[in-house]
Prior knowledge:
The protein is elongated, with a radius of gyration of 26 Å. The two termini are 38 Å apart. Strand 8, helix 10 (312-327) and strand 9 (335-341) form a beta-alpha-beta unit. It has 3 domains: 2-178, Four Helix Bundle (Hemerythrin (Met), subunit A) (Up-down Bundle), CATH 1.20.120; 188-284, Elongation Factor Tu (Ef-tu), domain 3 (Beta Barrel), CATH 2.40.30.10; 293-399, no CATH class. The protein is built from 11 helices and 11 strands. The strands form 2 sheets. Strands 4-3-7-1-2-6-5 form a 7-stranded antiparallel β-sheet. Strands 8-9-10-11 form a 4-stranded mixed β-sheet, with helices on one face. By secondary structure, the chain is α+β, with helices and mostly antiparallel strands. 29% of the residues are buried. The chain crosses the membrane at residues 68-89, 101-120, 127-144, 150-170. It is an enzyme of class 1 (oxidoreductase). GO terms for molecular function: ferric-chelate reductase (NADPH) activity. This is ferric-chelate reductase (NADPH).
Amino acid sequence: SSSNGRILGFLTLLGINGFCNTFKTYDLEDAGQRAARLALVNLIPLFLGGSHDFAAHSLGFSLDVYSFLHRSFAVAALLEAVIHVAIVIRTTSTSLNIDMNVYGIVAASILLSLFVLPFVRRRVYEIFLVAHKACAIAVVYAIWQHTRSAPGYIWLFSALYALILTLTVMMQFLRTLYQNVTVEKSLAKVNIQCYPGDTTQLRVLLPRPWKVRAGQRVNLSVPHVGIQYALQSHPFTVAWWETDRQGKARSFTILLRPQSGFTQKMVERLRPDHSYKAWTSGLYGPKSINWHPNSRIGNYGHVFFATTGIGIAAQLPYIKELLDGHQNATITTQKICLIWQLDQIGDWESARDLLQCLVRQDNGYVSFVPSVAQHPVPFNTSYYVITNPDATSLSLRRNS
């Protein structure tokens, strides 16, 4: 399974580090220096991208896999740093009056503090973004100060970190610039539509067409929301898109429910009757390299979807892609079933037109779709089910 594979991979990484720690180590002081070098080596993969999304996309990994690898190397680097500090304290007379020692402790402390940031991310995403980047820059500086007077060329590691980070950030910036700026147009345009229950729909018009797949995310920044958000991008799942004859999307739709920070400010400050300039970058996920061609959802005869509330935003793209594949005879799916439990009335209103597009996409549709105005939706009791029982018709019905 995936979890067993990750455990095995993590233990393998620790085993390799342990072997390198002990192989032909002559004394305790040598082991301490070896641990320091291993800590620096384990830090190299952590600077392979200005963001996890871009790094995962560039390497062909899913975001989940890349995040696991990022955390694994971070843990290995921290363990090696702790071993190095412990051995140095044991074998030498450490003085905090020496800058080299102070910066070494600072670098190790910053690495340790990075493991607290995920708890901040769950509460205040904007603070997490700034703090994580600040810690990355601070640890490079602290390592440089700690190693620049050390014998040999170990100080080059900090230069390597800075070079890798600079190159990947520049690559990401140039990619984003290409996606957002053309000769005819400058930046994307975003329109907002709010529904009861804080459900919100964003429609983004793109300067350049994108090839969109189900399950992909886009990073969005709207400078009008506030100057503090102008240089921040936030990830959203693409819920819908319309393609041209080349199969590329000129616009896409996002469904969301504001929580705090950027999304809440966006709902408060953007007006439904206006268009606002926005930065977009993406698309990210699923894996940019298909490692398992036979794992495509269209290879299953029956596909079952179940979701609640705003979670419909993650299901619509897969249903759309399945219907596209059925029309093009590229999938083997014979039956599609969606069960959706509504949390708020706005959930249905925000997705109603998109569901109707799915219905119209199937030429065999003949049944009647009840509207919310005619049939009020009791919360937590109503389900909407889409089925394709014979691969020739699509029906939408409401169950109480």
